[in-house]
Amino acid sequence: MATDPRDNLVAWLRDAHAMEEQAITMLNSQLKRLEHYPALKARIGQHIDETKRQEQVLQACLDRVGGGSSSLKDAAGKLTAMAQGMSGVFASDEVVKGSLASYTFEHMEIASYRILIAAAEAVGDAQTKAACERILAEEIAMADWLSDHMDDITRQFLSRDEAGLTAKR
Amino acid sequence: MATDPRDNLVAWLRDAHAMEEQAITMLNSQLKRLEHYPALKARIGQHIDETKRQEQVLQACLDRVGGGSSSLKDAAGKLTAMAQGMSGVFASDEVVKGSLASYTFEHMEIASYRILIAAAEAVGDAQTKAACERILAEEIAMADWLSDHMDDITRQFLSRDEAGLTAKR
What we know:
The structure is a homodimer.
Chain A: H1 5-31, H2 38-65, H3 76-90, H4 95-123, H5 126-162
Helix pairs in contact in A: 1-2, 1-3, 1-4, 2-5, 3-4, 4-5
């Protein structure tokens, strides 16, 4: 079965759109549990706004390139399963595991956009490539923020947990 | 409920041990499907050997610090669920999604070891800290390799897929 590269691009754009929808759900769920981690809470709030815009950008790409395609792959469900595996972690009150999952999810997004950029380039779709490059920069910035704060979050959690406090209380 | 930081460290070491066990299963499953991606296959083979040693190092840390602990958290299952969500992706024949999942999994490992290093430092466990720093360097090297080859893997997949070829055939 030969597959046109453009059909792979469309399938991966759909995966990315589903991934960002999942991201919004997970980030919102995490946001509610972070009363005592104000910097993390603020950064997640900012990233929720970014993610909503990213979802719209992906939808616009799909509207432009993907209208009539019918040879889509079944990979979207696999990424969503991966994301749902992580959403159980987000539902936890434990800020360390939540940050670990956020950092992991950001890198799933980073890899996805790098693949999309390579695919858009391969099929000569400059608009999709540029859109994904802009989104990629936001994902890298979020991943870097989490990376820069992971040690602090861990130490803060350990000392709060030693005092019997949760992220909310 | 107050929790001794050392108990969190032990729980996270157990999580990491379970994570590396899962990694060996997933990497082996991916290895079998990469006949036509020899560089990726060789790098994954190398990382399987590294991962087996990492698992032994973690077991030695646990034997040393975790013998009598009984106040472990229930977080291990969550990480394992996350990893299992990814293992469905690895089982797929599609090398792009497999590389995406590998890259993502490596960053889950990177975050886990950074958390472990911060925790080991917080409780003054220099041996665990040093062991996790050595493992972290291997995980970063694997993530960097995947990052450096992701564009090539994507292009190669697109052109093989256009010719109707899979990773194995």
